Amino acid sequence: xxxxxPQGGEHTASPEETSPDDLPRRPLxxxxxxxxxxxxxxxxxxALLHVGLQVRLQDWFGxxxxxxxxxxxxxxxxxxxxxxxxxxxxxxxRSLHRWGRRRPFIVAGTMLAVGMLLLLGATKSFWxxxxxxxxxxxxxxxxLGPFTALLPDTVHPREHGKASGFxxxxxxxxxxxxxxxxxxxxSTRAMPEASAATTTAFHDRRMLLMCGGMAAFMLVTMAYTxxxxxxxxxxxxxxxxxxxxxxxxxxVEVKGNESFFWLSLSRAVTNLGFYMFLxxxxxxxxxxxGNADPGGTTMRIMLPAIAAAVLSSIPSGMISxxxxxxxxxxxxxxxxxxxxxxxxxxxxxxxxxxxGIPAGLAYGVFTAVEWAxxxxxxxxxxxxxxxxxxxxxxxxxxxxxxPIAGAVGSGLAKxxxxxxxxxxxxxFGIALVCCLAxxxxxRFVREAPRRPQGIETG
Length: 458
What we know:
Blueprint: E1 11-13, H1 28-33, H2 36-60, H3 63-93, H4 103-122, H5 126-148, H6 150-154, H7 160-186, H8 196-228, E2 229-231, H9 242-247, H10 258-279, H11 281-288, H12 294-323, H13 326-345, H14 349-376, H15 383-411, H16 422-442
Parallel strand pairs: 1-2
Helix pairs in contact: 2-3, 2-5, 2-7, 2-8, 2-12, 3-5, 3-15, 4-5, 4-8, 5-15, 7-8, 7-12, 7-14, 10-13, 10-15, 10-16, 11-12, 11-16, 12-14, 13-14, 13-16, 15-16
């Protein structure tokens, strides 16, 4: 059965009545409707993970301790995010709610996350900040796990590259917006002589303003997503109870899905390198390159890289629909490794900025094409569960990257005979190795044959 677009512009998915191969070609409005909630989530984590978290920890701790507390937050938050996405995704695969499978989770998770965001912005010491951050992870991932399944639910597999390209751009725009927002609001460039107490008080006020703005944007994008993309509810009640479904969330089948899991491993290792690269950049700027404004300078380094990524994302996704996914992912992984090498050896920030541009270009290709390939390899009827596993291949690397990067960076803080901030420089060498290892594991992925060009327009 082929479904078209109902009157009023609502895009309807029927998981029981419509095979993915029977879905029509989607208009641009549908692809845009899939991106807005993703945009608000990447804005949130772009601001918090790339700048906000590091700046706040610098308010409370020095170089010798900041890495360890960064590791604590990354480890706990990553575990919470991973478990939540898989469980929420599995429950949504079997939800009988009259709104459909995904939207109830998106609404509930977002509403709870908004309250925790406001609490996060209002905290003025580490442990309340850490508790609020973990709860933001919990509730945003309750929504995000089911949300990601809307792409395979509503888009023909032959257009997964195009759809992933648009979502890749949304992610990169969110990263850019988050960097700009946090860089502007939390930068103390205009007050270089301020005392530590004055700087902390400044960040106290600005953090609440930033979190409040992001909470409002998440509410708007949640409402638009739930209105623009409609679902038909499941009609058959699952045999298992909600508790049995939740407990069985991790009972995934590896046999028969080997390529999906090899791809997830390749992504996880590559993302470990990416997060080593990304999350320690403010410390690299501050302690290795000796810059007194890590928030603002990190923003200026990242913006050209993200601009390059935005330019490459949609074209690479559409090209992969025609020529295949694996060759483009391979090229991106090697180029990201080269970018990490530039930071490893950079004698100054100018060289680092130049090295960030090819790395950003590669990341735009990587995010668009890997997601499309994963959607092509998903088992039928289990999209949200396995996308929870897929999302874990981005979250688990955060669990590892924070403590590894923090321990290396802070652990070598007193080794000065090879130059200042040696540990943060070595972190980029680890990132280089991870990107190359990801390319090695990609060798074992068997890409499904490309589908015919013709897609029903229904």
